[in-house]
Amino acid sequence: MSKQSDKLDKGRLRSSNITVVISIALVLFLLGLFGLILINAKSYADYIKEQLKVEAFFNDEYDPKLQDKEFERQQQYIDSLKLKHVFVKKVEYISKEKASEIAKNELGIDDNDIFEANIFPASALITLQPDFVNPVQVDSIKILLGADPIISDVVNDDELMTTVYNNIDRIRFWLMILAGIFLVIAMILINNSIRLRIFAKRFSIKTMQLVGARRRFIIKPFLLQSALLGFLGAVLSIAILAGLWYYFSKLVNMPFWQMEYYLLMLVLIVVGVVIALISTGIATWRYLRLNTDQLY
Q: Cα–Cα distance between 281 and 222 in angstroms, integer?
C-alpha cells in the first residue's frame, strides 16, 4: 500500500512539475514573441531612417586650371567623411552625368536636347547612422557639412524626416509600454503557477519544520527545483520561438538571426528563473509562518 502511495505521490509531483514548466514556457513564449516584434520593429525603423539621406552639393570649379583636379578633390572629401564624422554610415558619389540621368528619370524626359550638358552639380549622397536621424541632429549635421569650402549647399527633406521621426518615436513609445505590460502579466502568471505548486507541498513544508528542520534547509531544495523549472520553461519557450521564427523568416525573406536575440534569450531565462525563485521563496516562507490549523 505504501509503495502504491509513493508511486502516486511521485506521479503527482512529476505531473505538477511538467504543468509548471509548460505554464512558464507558454507565458515566456508570449513575452518572447512580443520581444521579437519589438526588435524587428527597431530594425525596420532603422531601415526607414537610412532612406532619409542628406545630399551635399559640390561647388563648381570655374578655373580651367583646377577643373582637372576637381574630381580628385571631391573624392578626397568623400573618403574623409567616414573618417572624420561618426554620423556617416555610407557615402555615394553622384557625378554631374549621373545627376542629369536621375533628373531625366524623375521628370520622365527622354530627350537629351532639353538639358544642357552637366547642368546639375556633382554631390555626395550621405546615409546617416540611424541614431543620428532626428530633426535637431540633422540640422546640426547640415550646418557642419555646409561649412566646408568645397560644399555649396546641403539639403534633405525636412518635412518628411520630421514626420517619419515623430511616427517612429510614437510607435516605439507604445511598444515599450506594451512590453512593460506583458512583463507584468508574465510575472503574475508565473508567480501563480509556482504558488500552486508550493501550495500542494504545504503539508510537507510544515512537517519538516515540526521535526526541527531549519527554515534555510527547508527552503533551499524548493528554490533549486523552482530555478530548474524556470530555466527549463525558458529553454522550451526559446526553442518554440526559434522554430516559429525560422519558418516565418524564410516565408517573408528576413534574416533569421540578429545580435539582439542574444539579449532576448537572456531576458527570457532571467525572467523565468528569477520570478520562479522569488515566488517560491515568498510562498514557502508564508507557509512556514502559518500555524498547522491555518494550512487547511
A: 8
Gap between the Cα atoms of 207 and 159, Å rounded: 72
175-216 pLDDT, tens digit per residue, is 778 878 877 877 777 777 777 777 667 667 667 766 666 767
User: How many Å apart are CA 225 and CA 205, to the nearest integer?
Assistant: 14
Closest CA to 146 of 137, 155, 159: 155
pLDDT of residue 8: 46
Residue the block writes with cell 560644399? 151
Max Cα distance, the chain (Å): 108
Which are the contacts of 258, defined by CB distance < 8 A and separation ≥ 6? 39, 43
Distance of CA 152 to the CA centre of its chain: 39
Considering the chain, what is the average pLDDT of its residues?
77
- Where do we find the cell 508574465? 186
From CA 138, how far away is CA 201, in angstroms rounded? Answer: 62
Give the CA angle between residues 47, 250, 245 to the nearest 5°: 85
Taking only the tens place, the pLDDT of each residue in 135-179 is 888 888 888 888 888 888 888 876 777 777 777 778 778 877 887
User: Above 60 in pLDDT, residue 11?
Assistant: no
Q: How far is CA 119 from the centre of its chain?
A: 45
Per-residue buried b or exposed e for 66-79, using 16+ beta carbons within 10 Å of the residue's own CB: eeeebeeebeebbe
C-alpha torsion 219→221→226→227, nearest 10: 110
User: Which CATH architecture does the domain made up of 53-156 adopt?
Assistant: 2-Layer Sandwich (3.30)
Assessment of whether the complete model's pTM goes beyond 0.90: no
Which sequence spans correspond to the domains of the chain? Answer: 2-47+165-295, 53-156
